[in-house]
Amino acid sequence: MLTKKQLSEIREHLERAQNPVFFYDNDADGFCSYVLFRRFLGRGKGVAVRTHPNIDAGYAKKAQEFGSDYVFILDRPFLGKEFVEEIEKLQLPIVWIDHHDIKENINDYGYDNIFVYNPTRTSYKKSKKSNEPVTYLAYKVVNRKEDVWIAVMGCISDHYMPDFIKEFAKEYSEYWRQQIAIEKPFDAYYKTEIGFLARALGFGLKDSITHVVQLQNFLVSCKSPADVLSEIESNRPFGKKYRELRKKYDLLIEKAKKNVDGKIIFFCYGGNLSISSDISNELSFLYPGRFIIVGYMMESISNLSIRGDDVKSLIEKLLPRFKDSRGGGHRNAVGVRLQTEDLERFKKEFEEEVNRKNARNKN
Hints:
Elements: H1 4-16, E1 20-25, H2 28-41, E2 45-49, H3 60-66, E3 70-74, H4 81-90, E4 94-97, E5 114-117, H5 134-142, H6 148-157, H7 165-171, H8 185-191, H9 193-204, H10 209-221, H11 225-233, H12 237-257, E6 260-261, E7 264-269, H13 276-286, E8 291-297, E9 301-307, H14 311-318, E10 326-329, E11 333-339, H15 343-362
Parallel strand pairs: 1-2, 1-3, 3-4, 4-5, 7-8
Antiparallel strand pairs: 6-7, 8-9, 9-11, 10-11
């Protein structure tokens, strides 16, 4: 967890910023982090980043276009040297708030106006390393009790049960099923009404940039979860897109279930809907104790969302064997970028590593 001093520093950066731009990862954690900061500050622009693994240098033009005086990066594991170089030309401070365990050295960027806040690699002596999602950190910074429901959506979307969940359940009991045992983050995500809203936001972020901007503005203006629910049920862009994507998503889940065999579920698909992370999360919930690999295949590159016990260490062994591959994430959830032609070999070597690991554990 970040220290009180670090949280205070982030708040000071926010208060100094008169026209900040927030570049956030295109998922519910990044999105809710931005919304919490925007509601607290009452100013600034949000930009969902869809390039991986680095932030494309072209995004820096947004800072210039908006006339920004501060750059905040939320929930992104890599910045990218070219992006930093473009921001350096504008001489804007960068506040980078993240929770991925990435060993990237900011000194490699050659820019001394970057402030890093990451609980997995904090240099503050009093703080213990951890990996609370950025939404959790943002909520601790702004400390607005009326926004606890937004914070919960971001946290459970990133498979994290926050310490303020009881506070939320008391205030918004109708969105928290008291009669069901909610012990794990995925229980909250898939079994409660607030989880339903969080999943809907995830689908909304798959829409066009124009509609994502509309969704940003809408959530910033919401007074309660009921506002989000009414929007989902409407025929406005968010509601229509949610129903459209949910139908496609449910079909993919049903196809993925046909690939359940043994301890490893391997499912790949193509098309125009990049939603492998959502699919892998639900399969992990439905089939606990198994390794899940969901690949979104493009022509030459595939993005893999992988889930399983200590899968991060397993991936760290595998990736050096594959040219132009890259990946990272958390202990039990990682993302990998791989050459599509290497998928079958990756699957085979992944299975071999799992078998070796199981054999060692038996001994």
